[in-house]
Amino acid sequence: FGVCRREESEIIEGEVVEVQIDRPASGTGTKVGKLTLKTTEMETIYDLGTKMIESLTKEKVQAGDVITIDKATGKISKLGRSFTRARDYDAMGSQTKFVQCPDGELQKRKEVVHTVSLHEIDVINSRTQGFLALFSGKDPELCLEMRLGEAKTCSKAEKENGVLFIDEVHMLDIECFSFLNRALESDMAPVLIMATNRGITRIRGTNYQSPHGLPIDLLDRLLIISTAPYSDKETKQILKIR
């Protein structure tokens, strides 16, 4: 379960024409440099500071890469190699991704999506002046509905129900099944996937037996997908592919 937060940010997006870094002759001192970016309609030269040079070096940015730079944080992301540089090398790695050179202005506004889990929200809210203060109030133990309701009212976030996977589900007792049965009726219920290798077995906490050790009322709400061991032919095919 998590919360999807959308916001607009200003970015610089373009194809790298040249990266020029000037290092002091003594080997020590502040590095300076210039970054030339272009789109299909314009080309601009940007002066680089020490932090931006370190970021470019860390991301291994070179001429021909299509990158985005978040103006607020300075974060650099490589989108791939430009199609115009596809013939620069005779051989390319399978991980090399080619993209079109961006069009329009270099500076543009783009919607950025941040997804955080409920646990991450609680951890951040437990700190003073947490980054996601929009999800919290004065009481750190606010219920989930209040935290999400406030964010949704402000049009700052929307909930992501997510997926809950429970293996060996026959190990749960009747109280856990009662909770799951009620939780599935909530609007914020995740997609529930359960796995077990049991047939007719006793429901823990009771003297009743049922298929897979699940209460009948919960079993009626599930889609059962049976699995079978791989045949020798299928096993050989899997090993051949790998």
Question: Can you characterise this structure?
Answer:
This protein is an alpha+beta fold and 242 residues long. The protein has three domains: 9-111, Beta Barrel (OB fold (Dihydrolipoamide Acetyltransferase, E2P)); 113-160, no CATH class; 161-242, 3-Layer(aba) Sandwich (Rossmann fold). The protein is 21% helix and 32% strand. The strands form three sheets. Strands 1, 2, 3, 4, 5, 6, 7 and 8 form an eight-stranded mixed β-sheet that branches. Strand 2 (32-38) and strand 3 form a beta hairpin.
Number of helices: 6
CATH topology title of the largest domain: OB fold (Dihydrolipoamide Acetyltransferase, E2P)
Largest sheet: 8 strands, mixed
Write down the domain tally.
3
Question: Ranges with pLDDT <50 over ≥5 residues?
Answer: 131-154
CATH class of the largest domain: Mainly Beta
Average pLDDT works out at: 79
Note the run of SSEs as H and E.
EEEHEEEEHHEEHEEEHH
Protein structure class: alpha+beta
CATH architecture of the largest domain: Beta Barrel
EC number: 3.6.4.12
Keywords: ATP-binding, DNA damage, DNA recombination, DNA repair, Helicase, Hydrolase, Nucleotide-binding, Nucleus, Transcription, Transcription regulation
Family: Belongs to the RuvB family.
GO cellular component, one term: nucleus
